[in-house]
Amino acid sequence: MLDAPVSQLSALVRGRKPGYSLDAPFYTAPAIFDADMEAIFARHWIYVGVEPDVPEAGDVMTVDVGKASVLIARDDDGAIKAFHNVCRHRGARLIDDEKTSVGNIVCRYHSWTYDLTGALVHAPHMGSSFDASCNGLKSVHLRSLEGLLFVCLADEPPADFDVMAARIGPYIAPHKVRDTKIAYQSDIIEMGNWKLAMENNRECYHCDANHPELTVPLFAYGFGFAPEEMDPIDLENAQRYEALRQTSHSQWEAMGLPSREIDELDTMVTGFRTERLPLDGDGESHTMDTRVACRLPLGALTNAKLGGLSFWTQPNSWHHFLGDHIVTFAVFPLDAGRTLVRTKWLVNKDAVEGVDYDIERLIEVWTATNAQDSALVAMCQSGVQNPAYEPGPYSPNTEMLVEKFCRWYIGRMTGFLDQ
Ligand code: FES
Ligand code: FE
């Protein structure tokens, strides 16, 4: 049960004013953070990484979702499974490293030993009446969406993951996540609540003023705007961008690349959104010259000018699929005021660093953008702690997806409180 005064949480959830940012305690109160962990992160599909995180049999990755540590392992048959990272003997954490490679999983305390299917295969001195088959590792639900790994800590995960997978699968499949390798990973601890990190991701209202690198490949007109505030020249450019978006969708779909928007951000339990959007300049990639960063394309893609396919999931991820690389982001709440944002850059697994791609060039745009976003989230966290803070209005033209995030969150919290 929650320690939080449920009636207080309930009043805040029910009192949320649509179209406005959330009340301060949603960003600052430890009790609401605990409720978020229980209602959101322990009950929904959480994006944790990619199949290339564990490319070989015996590879193990650990990831912390709140107080839970999950161990993701590839077994000798190549299957990827997820388990609670806790020994069935007296509860020791089994693996500390984020990545390792093992034959079996051996607990350092009393040497209980599990194979990569989770079975307990060795438990010395437990006597003849001990039944090892009842003491295998506890499973965690794991799903791979074309190579993107999601876990769910609940006994009964939301069933609509399959609906999402069926609809988004064809968009992602051509980028062949399974045939990539992780060229680079960055972990940033943002000094803000996880919802501020997510809200910041769900709009580009701030891009013009804060992201000089990201706005090189991204079209300014793709960020949303208020037509009534634009002069005739801007309006004409915006119309030209809209026409480009439509033509690009038709061209890409003719190549077999689904591109049109799907938006289920606040209409499904497993909320998601996708769209492939044209890029500015040469239109190839999220780089400072908008050309590819990796000479080897992903999968069987041949045309470099594929724009960027974005995929957003509730509650904790976003991804950009380019023709030559993928950038994928996962958000892990640490406490009410701190959030881990983990970014991975994926390239074709056959690409050779220094020959086919240069790391600095590959990560340049998003490394700068992440640092800028981290500062913005910290700035917002400082502000919402100020007693003078009160929820402010979202722009109806550029912050629609922030509103959808909050609506989804409030809806899920309402469902949790009503059960
Ligand atoms: Fe793991 Fe004892 S706690 S073997
Ligand atoms: Fe940003």
How are the elements arranged and paired?
Elements: H1 6-14, H2 25-28, H3 30-41, E1 46-50, E2 59-65, E3 68-74, E4 80-84, E5 99-101, E6 105-106, E7 113-114, E8 120-122, E9 139-145, E10 148-152, H4 161-172, E11 180-190, H5 194-201, H6 207-210, H7 232-254, E12 262-263, E13 272-277, E14 308-313, E15 317-321, E16 325-335, E17 338-348, H8 359-384, H9 400-418
Antiparallel strand pairs: 1-10, 2-3, 2-5, 3-4, 4-9, 6-7, 7-8, 9-10, 11-17, 12-13, 13-14, 14-15, 15-16, 16-17
Helix pairs in contact: 1-9, 3-9, 5-8, 5-9
User: By CATH's scheme, which homologous superfamily of the largest domain applies?
Assistant: Naphthalene 1,2-dioxygenase Alpha Subunit, Chain A, domain 1
CATH class identity of the largest domain: Alpha Beta
Question: Number of DSSP strands?
Answer: 17
Numbering strands along the chain, what is their spatial order in the largest sheet? 1-10-9-4-3-2-5
- How much helix, percentage-wise, in residues? 25-40%
Mean of all residue-level pLDDT scores = 96
String of helices and strands: HHHEEEEEEEEEEHEHHHEEEEEEHH
Number of helices: 9
